[in-house]
């Protein structure tokens, strides 16, 4: 699995991320797992998240000045972010792949990917 040895702690962190739709921070992951893994530190969470990002297993989302959030969904998708409460919601918009093709044709770049965020106010905060 991408050269990452799966310890029980790593499995717990990755499973939590894959099951979570909330794009948690490292601290939120720590709080969710601390009862089951009392010997796991926040530093362990951060180190393993960094390892997973480098291995291409998860994405790190860096929006604004807040703590990084982590996403276990590696499919092509985008994020709508509430400017009031900070909730991040996934959405799909396959037509944006056409923008990559156009950029490649116009610039000669070998396009690796793109990122898009939509900012506004979620239904709960409206």
UniProtKB/TrEMBL annotation:
<dbReference type="InterPro" id="IPR043135">
    <property type="entry name" value="Fur_C"/>
</dbReference>
<comment type="similarity">
    <text>Belongs to the Fur family.</text>
</comment>
<protein>
    <submittedName>
        <fullName>Fur family transcriptional regulator</fullName>
    </submittedName>
</protein>
<dbReference type="Pfam" id="PF01475">
    <property type="entry name" value="FUR"/>
</dbReference>
<dbReference type="InterPro" id="IPR002481">
    <property type="entry name" value="FUR"/>
</dbReference>
<dbReference type="InterPro" id="IPR036388">
    <property type="entry name" value="WH-like_DNA-bd_sf"/>
</dbReference>
<dbReference type="InterPro" id="IPR036390">
    <property type="entry name" value="WH_DNA-bd_sf"/>
</dbReference>
<keyword id="KW-0804">Transcription</keyword>
<keyword id="KW-0805">Transcription regulation</keyword>
<keyword id="KW-0678">Repressor</keyword>
<keyword id="KW-0238">DNA-binding</keyword>
<keyword id="KW-0862">Zinc</keyword>
């Amino acid at each position: 699995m991408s050269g990452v040895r799966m310890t029980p702690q790593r499995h717990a962190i990755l499973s939590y991320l894959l099951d979570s739709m909330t794009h948690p921070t490292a601290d939120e992951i720590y709080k969710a797992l601390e009862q089951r893994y009392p010997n796991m530190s926040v530093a362990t969470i951060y180190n393993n998240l960094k390892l997973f990002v480098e291995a291409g297993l998860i994405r790190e989302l860096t929006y604004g000045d807040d703590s990084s959030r982590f996403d276990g969904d590696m499919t092509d998708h985008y994020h709508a972010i509430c400017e009031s409460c900070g909730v991040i919601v996934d959405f799909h918009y396959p037509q944006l792949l056409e923008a990559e093709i156009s950029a490649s044709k116009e610039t000669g770049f070998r396009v690796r990917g793109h990122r898009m965020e939509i900012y506004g106010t979620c239904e709960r905060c409206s």
